[in-house]
Amino acid sequence: xxSSQSTDxxxxxxxxxxxxxxxxHLLLGRPKRAALVCTGVMGLFLFGLLxxxxxxxxxxxxxxxxxxxxxxxxxxxxxxxxxxxxxxxTDPANPNLIRxxxxxxxxxxxxxxxxxxxxxxxxxxxxxxxxxxxxxGRINEIAMLSIxxxxxxxxxxxxxxxxxxxxRSVRTPKERGDA
Amino acid sequence: MMTLAYTPFxxxxxxxxxxxxxxxxxxxxxxxxxxxVRCTHLKRYPxxxxxxxxxxxxxxxxLALSFIVLVDFLIPMLAPMPA
Lengths: 179, 83
Hints:
B: 2 helices
């Protein structure tokens, strides 16, 4: 076994892995693994976002899913922040309810607070509506699942960055002493 | 606000008819990430990723087939519905 890299308990690398996928392995001096891990985790994350839209990450409506998704780190927290603050607004009938827009509504900021207001037929004909189209049914489930899988994968990556396994290279038959 | 055009990463894609095919890219990304950590020799990485993808998709296809046989053939045989 050949190893020039540290395999000691490394909390800094673990923390980096939780902040952004692959950052932990980059800190450990394993750039190839960092790139592969980042491709896998961010691929799952972006794929979920691509098919489910910004609605796939929702701290308010899909709380339990969000706990799994949050393991991806900063990307999930950033998307959730944007979703909650730029795509949701208060229900005009119930000021305590913050929700996504329905067809026939548009988002207006009044006195610093975003609210949903109904559109006229002319405005709807002009193409006005809520800022995003939420995913429904299976597509929404698959999108959320993809991002949760990214989170679960990043948990494995975090553990590997925290307690790194030694790097090994493939030994040739000559090195193994085979004829 | 205009919403007529599809905006990537903001709006959901209407893929309801081909939802089962979405497992393929998910499996590929999962295998790339998982084997990036678990593969002990990076020289063997492409081979291990390919095997992992085939294993996941194969087992999922077998599970789907088993459930089709169970729901469409075995259950109607064991507990036929009254005419």
